């Protein structure tokens, strides 16, 4: 049982797990901000054109009411969050690729000897003859 807890502690304290936990917390806060943006800013703006706040749009068939406005608000939330995540991941990948290219270029480019070393080699070769 001790070994199990030791392994769990090592797993929980890895950088990736901690990074993921921070990302989830920040993601939750960001989602709350986007939800507020949609509910308090975008829905009323859409309401200016439709005559109703987006959340209040409903369709009634018999005794059943479909709240399609609330659904549309959720779709808008999702699109905004997905767009921001896409932009962040694309930026991170671009930076990562730039770093890899710089490292590859540094590894591929052989260091040319200094001018003094070239001169010393020429002198050495002349003396050998």
Low-confidence stretches: none
CATH architecture: Orthogonal Bundle
Major sheet strand order: 1-2
The number of helical runs is 4
Mean pLDDT: 84
* Oligomer kind: single chain
CATH class: Mainly Alpha
Helical content (DSSP H or I, runs of 4+): over 70%
The best one-word shape is elongated
Radius of gyration: 30 Å
Order of helices and strands: HHEEHH
CATH topology assignment: Non-ribosomal Peptide Synthetase Peptidyl Carrier Protein, Chain A
Structural class based on helices, strands and sheet pairing: mainly alpha
CATH homologous group name: Large-conductance mechanosensitive channel, MscL, domain 1
Number of strands: 2
Approximately what portion of the residues adopt beta-strand conformation? under 5%
């Amino acid at each position: 049982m001790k070994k199990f807890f030791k392994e769990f502690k090592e797993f929980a304290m890895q950088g990736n797990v901690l990074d993921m936990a921070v990302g989830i917390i920040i993601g939750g806060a960001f989602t709350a901000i986007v939800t507020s943006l949609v509910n308090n800013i975008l829905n009323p703006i859409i309401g200016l054109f439709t005559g109703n706040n987006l959340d209040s749009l409903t369709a009634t068939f018999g005794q059943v009411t479909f709240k399609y406005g609330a659904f549309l608000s959720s779709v808008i939330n999702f699109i905004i969050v997905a767009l921001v995540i896409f932009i962040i991941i694309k930026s991170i990948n671009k930076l990562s690729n730039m770093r890899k290219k710089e490292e590859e270029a540094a590894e591929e480019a052989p260091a040319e000897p200094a001018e003094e070393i070239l001169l010393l080699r020429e002198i050495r070769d002349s003396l050998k003859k």
